[in-house]
Amino acid sequence: MSEDISQDSAGFETRARIDTTRPHSARFWNYFIGGKDNYKIDREVGDQIKEIFPGLVDVAVTSRQFLGRAVRYLAGEQGIRQFLDVGTGLPTADNTHEVAQRVAPDARIVYVDNDPIVLTHANALLTSTPEGRTAYLDADLHDPESVLRAAAGTLDFSQPVALMILNTLGHVAEYEEARALVRRLMSGLAAGSYLVICDGTATSEPMIAAAAAYKESGAVPYHVRSVEEITGLFDGLTLVEPGVVRVPEWRPEGGDGGPSDVDAYCGVARKD
Fold first, then answer.
1. What is the mean pLDDT of the chain?
2. Would you call 43 exposed, middle or buried from its count of C-beta atoms within 10 A (0-12, 13-18, 19+)?
């Protein structure tokens, strides 16, 4: 395990913002999907929560698999060539740009996050095929208009864009605020754009207990919501079949693994 992940070229100011004494959602999730970019505190809390709810590891793994399927569907079947990935988290294998550019080498991807841990890994994301383009923005989900203005340096908003918000909206405490943020982001995208969301859900007592334990650890809380609330995030858009379903049930592929009854739901919807 790496214990020096803040020691790179991101600069002293960014490194100074990193708190290694508290668990951190991006590092915590990285640990659950088998990554090495985490600290001892993240692994300790992760192990404690696995004792409460071992299924949270399955949520992490199957959510990552969903990302790949959704991007392949959009790039391969719908011809989407632009992706705006908000709250991207730490890079691991098969990031959005890697999946998209395998299908369409000319795809353009903008990653958005405002977290110092993620900032230190920005260089790992700033790779691209010669035909395409990949960019990373230090911007905040809570300021959608700024996100869109900054992303316009890479993306052409007169053409369709796939907005990806995976395992991120739970950090927005108020549900109506989360809905409003999604609407404001989608309002800046052209007709034919898509919204992709997946998130943990309050669909079992162990999942609810795991979210409470995570909050009690001192980390920034993550709010799990009902399936109806996840569905409401797509209001005004046309859901792609099979609609809002458990993560493994969205257009499964043969190579996917893990159980089907995870406490996480997802959906893909089109802006007409």
1. 87
2. middle
Q: Is 87 helix (H, G, I), strand (E, B) or coil?
A: coil
Rounded distance between C-alpha atoms, residue 183 and residue 194, angstroms: 12
**Cα–Cα distance list, 49 to 42, 140, 208, 253 (Å):** 11, 28, 11, 29
Q: Is 235 exposed, middle or buried (0-12, 13-18, 19+ CB in 10 A)?
A: exposed
CB atoms within 10 A of CB 217: 18
Question: Rounded to whole angstroms, how far apart are CA atoms 258 and 242?
Answer: 19
User: Hey, what are 93's tokens?
Assistant: 């294998």
User: Which DSSP letter does residue 179 get?
Assistant: H
DSSP 34-73: T-S---HHHHHHHHHHHHH-THHHHHHHHHHHHHHHHHHI
What torsion do the CA atoms of 193, 61, 228, 192 make, to the nearest 10 degrees?
10
Beta bridge partners of 166: 198
- Number of neighbours of residue 253 by Cβ within 10 angstroms: 9
Centre a 10 Å sphere on the Cβ of residue 4 and count the other Cβ atoms it contains.
6
pTM of this structure: 0.87
**CB–CB of 75/103 below 8 Å?**
yes
Q: What is the pLDDT of residues 87-101, one digit of tens each?
A: 987 777 789 999 999
Q: In the numeric block, which tokens belong to residue 224?
A: 């799990």
Q: Tens of pLDDT along 157-196? A: 999 999 999 999 999 999 999 999 999 999 999 999 999 9
Helix locations, 152-266, DSSP H: 175-187, 205-216, 227-232
